[in-house]
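Reading a protein record of the kind used here takes little practice once its layout is understood. The fold follows as a row of integers, each naming the local backbone shape at the matching residue. With these conventions in mind, the following record can be read line by line:

_____
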Amino acid sequence: MKDILIAITGAELDFDLARDMARIIARRDNGETDCLAWFDGPRNSHSPGSVQCEIKGRPGWEVYGENHGGRVKIIINQREYVFIHS
């Protein structure tokens, strides 16, 4: 899986804007993609929501995304938001 790190300064960032940016970046190199898993730090929320555990010190939602076809992980503002796309 390829990690892409993004830092946004000087603009207010919320989940919707972060998700839209991640989608554009994921599609640039991969064509059509699906968002398999995400994390919203400010709201302490993630999807899939049913994965509440840690697996070897990593969040379950992240492991889920990687194991279900994730090809790119977009990390925004040092994990404030994370999106895993196929």
User: Anything to note?
Assistant: The mean pLDDT is 91.
